[in-house]
Amino acid sequence: MEPRMPEYDNPAIAAILDTTADLLEIAGADRFRFLSYHKAAHAVRAWPEDINTLATEERLTDIPGVGKKLAANIASILARGSFAEFDELTAELPPTLVALMQVPGVGPKKARTLYDRLGVTSVDDLEAALAEGKVAALQGFGDRTAANIAAGIISYRTFGARALLADALPLAEKVAAYLRALPSAVSAEPAGSVRRGKETVGDIDVLVASLDPSAIMEAARTLPIVTRVIASGETKTSVETTAGLQVDVRVVAPDEWGAALQYFTGSAEHNVRVREIAKGLGLKVTEYGVFRIDTGERCASDTEEAVYAALGMQTPPPELRENAGEIESATAGTLPKLITLADIRGDLHCHTTATDGKSTLEANKAKAAELGYEYLAITDHAWGLRMVGGLDLDDLERQWARIDELNAEGGPVLLKSIELNIDEKGEVDYPDEVLARFDICIASLHSGWGQPREVGTSRLLRAMENRFVDIIGHPTGRILRRREPIDLDMEAVCAKAAETGTALEIDAYPDRLDLSDVHLRMALRHGARISMGCDAHEASQMHFMRYGVSTARRGWVTPEVTLNAHPLPEMLALLKRNRTA
DNA sequence: GCCGTTTTCGGCCCGACTGTTTTCAGTCG
Ligand SMILES: Nc1nc2c(ncn2[C@H]2C[C@H](O)[C@@H](COP(=O)(O)OP(=O)(O)OP(=O)(O)O)O2)c(=O)[nH]1
Ligand SMILES: [Mg+2]
Ligand SMILES: [Mg+2]
Ligand SMILES: [Zn+2]
Predict the structure, then answer these.
(1) Beta carbon of A192 within 6 Å of any ligand 1 atom
(2) Is the pTM of this model over 0.90?
(3) Four-way CATH pick for A268-332: 3.90.1180.10, 3.40.50.2300, 3.30.210.10, 3.90.1170.50
C-alpha cells in the first residue's frame, strides 16, 4: 500500500510558512519577502476555512497575504509535503537553525554567524561552543553577548511552552496591582495576549502610567518574583520570574495611556495594520499617540477610543485584535456585540461525586446560585465510561429523584443531563427510551486520539445524527500542553452540527478551551449553535466560565447563537430534541 | 511576496534596549 500523505490543517501549513520565513531571513533574503511568509502564516492560522477546502476550490488567494506564489506553494505542500523554494532552502541551510532563533538573544544574524563560523546547527552545539569560549571570541560577539546567550539557553530550556491563561492571568493581575499601588503610579493594567484573552500566553505584559518612570522601572526590577533582569531602560523592563514566565513592564506618561494601551495590547499584526492605515491618512501611530505627519501635532493619546476614532474606527474589543477581519469591521462600524460573562444564564457541563467529580449535586447547585445562574446541567459520565464511575440506570434514577427534590426547593434549576461517550462506531450509551428522558444530552469523544481524520470525523457525524444528542462536548479533545486535538474535518463537523441542530460546546476548562477561537468562527460560518460549560469536576471550577467567555469572544460569538445565554424555556426550545419538525 | 477610492510600481510600523560599534546593527516588544 502507498504510504499516506499526512493530512494538513491550517496550523500545520502555517508552521511550514513560518519556518520558510525564518530560513529565508537567515539566508539573507529581502526583508519584505520573508515577512510575506510570516504574514501569510498568521493569516492562514486565523482563517476560519479549512485550507484543504480552499485549495480544492482554488480559493487560497481569498486569504489576505496569499497571492499567486504562496497559493502555489501551499498547494504544493498539500500535494507532496513541500515546495520548490523550501527544498532549495533546506538544501542550503540545516532547517534546525530555526530552533537557534528560538533562543532569546539569538536572531537570524547571530544564527547565521554561529553556523558559518562554528558549524553550530542546534542548541546543544551552541551550548558546547559557549563552554569552549568560541562564541565570545567571534567577531561582533564578546563576553557579554556570550553570557546573554547562555542565559537565553537556560530560559529556552526551562520556560519552553506557553503558559495557560488561567495560570498567567492571576499573576498578571497581581503584578499590575502591586505596581498600581506604588505612590508614583497613576494606573497599571495587564496588556498583551493576557488582555486579549488568548488561551495561552508567551509572557505577561503590564502597562503602567506614571510621571516618575524611573521609580516604576526600579520597582519592576525588584519585584519579589524576579529571578533575572533581562533588560531595563527608561521606559521598559523585562524580567524572568519564579513562575517560569517573563514579565514585560512598560511605563508611559498618564496622558499617553490610551495610545500605549493600544500598542501594548496588540496583537503585533493588528498594530502593524492599524499603523499602515494611519499612514494612508497622513497620520502616524506610536505608543505615544496619533500624530499628524505634516505638522507633528498630536491628535489623540489619552484613551484607546480616541486613538481608534482618530483613524475613523470603532474600538475593537481586545479579544478581536488579531488582524483577522476586526479592522474592516471597526472601520465599517459593524463590530459584533460579543457575548459577555453577564450574558451567561447557566452552565451546561458539570460533574458530581456520582462519577469523577469531587463536589456533590448540592454543592454544585449552591455554586450556581452564587453565580446568579438560572439553571445548571448535571452532566455526569454515562455507562460507557465505567472506569470513572459512569452511571447505570439505577444510578440515574437515584440522581433524578434527588434533582427533583432539589428543584422543589427553588433556586437554579438542575437539568437532568448526561455526558455520553461516543464509541468507536459513533454510537452513544443507553437505549433511546432512556435518552429521551434526559433534559439535555452532551456526547463527547474520550478515546481514539491518534485516529485518522476520516475516522474521528465519521464518529462525530454519526453521533450528531442521533436525535437525542443535543451538544457535542469538547469536540477536538485537545488538552493544552499535553494532547493534540483529534484530527477532524472540522468543516464537515460544523456543517453537520448546523444541519442537525446539534450545538458545539466550548468546554471552558482552562487546558481545554475546546472549541478553539478559530474553530468557533468556522462553526458560526456554518450557522451552528454554541453551548458553554465549565466541565467542572469540583464546584469552584464553575468559575472557569470567564475563560470560556474569552475564547467565545475571540471566536466572534454573540449571545444570540449561544444556548446558555438564553432563558431556560428558550434554551430548552433550541435543543435538537425539542425542535419541531 | 503582496497589493491597489491617490498606485500594476514602489511602497511595506515604529520604537526601546544592549553591546561592541568608532557611528549603529541586532534583537525584541
Ligand atoms: N507595533 C508593534 N507592536 C508590537 C510588535 N511586537 C509586539 N508588539 C506589541 C503588541 C503585543 O501584543 C505587545 C506585547 O508583545 P508580546 O511579544 O508579549 O506579544 P503578545 O503578548 O501579543 O503575545 P505572547 O502571548 O506574549 O506571545 O507588544 C511589533 O513588531 N510592532
Ligand atoms: Mg505577551
Ligand atoms: Mg511581552
Ligand atoms: Zn465532562
Answers:
(1) yes
(2) yes
(3) 3.30.210.10
